[in-house]
Amino acid sequence: MRLPDALVQLARRLVGDRRGNVVTTFALAAPVIAILVLGAVDLASVSGDKGNLQEVADSAALMAAKQMGVADNGGLAERVKAVITQQLAEMDGRLSYQSAIEFDEEEGLATVTITANRASFFVNLLPPGGWNFTIVSKAQRMGTTPLCVLSFGVDKQDNINLKDSAQILAPGCLVHGNGDVTVEGAASLTAGTVQAAGLATGAINPAAQTDAPAIDDPFADMTISADGGACSPVDIVSELLPIVLAPGVHCGAIQVGKSGTITLLPGEHVFRKGALVLKENASLIGDNVVLVFGRDAQFNFKDESQIRLRGRRQGAYAGFVIATTRDNTNTFEISSSAARELLGTVYIPNATLVVLGKNKVADQSAWTVIVAESLQLKENPDLVINKNYSGTNVPVPDGVGPGSTANVRLTE
Fold it and tell me: Residue 81: which residues within 8 A CB-CB, separation 6 or more?
């Protein structure tokens, strides 16, 4: 702990001066200097503790505001208090405190108050009774627009990028990019709100909010695995015969063309290796399913292939329709002109989703959420992002949709 320069200089002069009166003065002044020095140390420590309390209160207020309205406020308050207790554990020996959380639903405001007492210098004599703090932090939801599209990559290639005549139509939704949002040529982006942590250019309606705070991956703590036991790497190719796949691990490439059909039975379908390719007039149908793609797997929906997928209604992947493992860095392509139903969350954390084609995509879904490192649209597709969350029994995962954690800021 660094002492004030004036005290250091005074002590050096007194110690270095050998004259008798100075020695006597120093002997008399030494206790006072010691008290001043120790008081300065105590003040510096108190200032550090107060700063730590403010950081904890700010973090707790943001957490409370993000989750307000998603869960019961009484239970949320208890969880926030538990987080405060955990974060202040290292100060237990010198600090006693109480915390309180208040919610203003109408204003979307969460207020965290921490009242604390810290032991002071000379056994709580300076000041008498110790140091008392009242720390207040307020965080507010900036709006109720649900988060429907998030590109959370920050490198240049991880932008939301629309080219040619591509369109994103997301009325009433928040579309957010942690990098740039770039709309080129005759492409257009229409949403309830558009935000970019970087720049935003092109035909964007309404005008994008730039330099917005970055939004973290809302599913960063989620476990996504392509494990599940051994399986034979059998490739499947079909052009006419229907294929029915039970949930489990699929280890070979699957390609269906012409009028072939794949029906996925309800459950978790893990594609460990190879590509799932739909082309020509083939169909992929699944209800109450999630497609999980491991490191060496990907999908490619092409031509006029019919894609009708509805996400999981329960289990660890509830609310998800497509997910990839975190070590999967492939490019996932939807170039079908008939991929009309993608009901659920498409989560591609470390890869790129490319939407091509010439017709509407996902427009017949009650709701769709896309969370990817990068989102690219080319040619002439219309990616439609609906938000009819009450129109289906597929739940929306916490952190997106109406339970978004996006638009939250500290106000005090």
Answer: 99, 101
User: Can you give the residue ranges of every domain in the chain?
Assistant: 5-141, 147-406
Closest listed residue to residue 277, CA positions, set 305, 306, 255, 245: 255
CA–CA separation, 1 vs 7, rounded Å?
A: 13
Q: How many whole angstroms separate alpha carbon 179 and alpha carbon 335?
A: 24
All residues at 6 or more sequence positions from 108 whose CB lies less than 8 Å from its CB, including other chains:
65, 68, 69, 140, 141, 144
From the list 146, 154, 147, 180, the residue with the least C-alpha distance to 350 is 154
Rounded CA gap, 386 and 364, in Å? 8
C-alpha dist (Å) from residue 341 to 91, 182, 197:
53, 26, 30
Per-residue DSSP letters for 346-404?
EEEEEEEEEE-SSSEESTTSSBEEEEEEEEEE-SS-EEE--B-GGGSSSPPPTBSBTTB
| Ordered per-residue pLDDT tens for the chain, 412 residues | 454 555 555 555 555 555 555 555 545 555 655 555 555 555 667 888 888 999 999 999 988 887 775 556 788 889 899 999 999 988 887 788 999 999 887 667 899 999 998 877 665 556 777 888 899 999 877 666 889 999 988 777 778 999 999 999 999 899 999 999 999 999 999 999 899 999 999 999 999 989 888 888 999 999 999 887 777 677 888 887 899 999 999 999 999 999 899 999 999 999 998 999 999 999 999 999 999 999 999 999 998 999 999 999 999 999 999 999 999 999 999 988 888 999 999 999 999 999 998 889 999 999 999 999 999 999 999 999 999 998 899 999 988 987 665 556 777 6
The rounded distance, in Å, linking the Cα atoms of 239 and 338 is: 18
Q: How far apart are the first and last CA of the chain?
A: 30
Find the angle CA(192)-CA(193)-CA(195) to the nearest 5 degrees: 160
Strand-pair partners of 298: 275
Secondary structure class of 320 (helix, strand, coil): strand
Q: What is the DSSP string of 233-273?
A: ---EEESSSEEEE-SEEE-S-EEE-TT-EEEEPSEEEEEEE
CA–CA separation, 411 and 141 (whole Å): 10
Locate 234 and state its tokens: 């059998």
CA–CA gap between residue 49 and residue 66 (Å, rounded): 26
231 contacts 253 by C-beta, under 8 angstroms = no
Which tokens is 129 given? Answer: 């009774």
